[in-house]
Amino acid sequence: MTDWICKPHTGLTVTELYALLRLRAQVFVVEQQCCYQDLDGQDLQGATRHLLGWQDGQLAAYCRILDPATRDGEI
After folding, report:
1. Rounded to the nearest 5°, which phi and psi values hold at 36?
2. What is the CA radius of gyration of the chain?
3. Fewer Cβ in 10 A, N or C end of the chain?
């Protein structure tokens, strides 16, 4: 069973932030061999939210939901 948590960046703990950055690096940099900078500043803009899915104490899923106000109404 997955425990889902959705928080703004100001609500993330250091442990949650580290886990999500680690997972993003694993997926984008290692698995997808993406050479683009992941830390793009959008994590801290407006009402951006972070959806975290935890299984057995490990972050198993993550989604960054960008603030539509900063993206011409697009999420």
Report:
1. -90, 150
2. 13
3. N
pLDDT tens across 3-43, in order?
A: 999 999 999 999 999 999 999 889 887 777 877 777 777 88
Evaluated on CA atoms 44, 50, 17, 30, the torsion sign reads negative
Between CA 73 and CA 49 the distance in angstroms is 15
Regarding pTM above 0.90, the answer is no
pLDDT of residue 1: 92
Cβ atoms 8, 51 nearer than 8 A: no
Q: Identify which of 47, 46, 58, 75 has the alpha carbon closest to the alpha carbon of residue 20.
A: 58
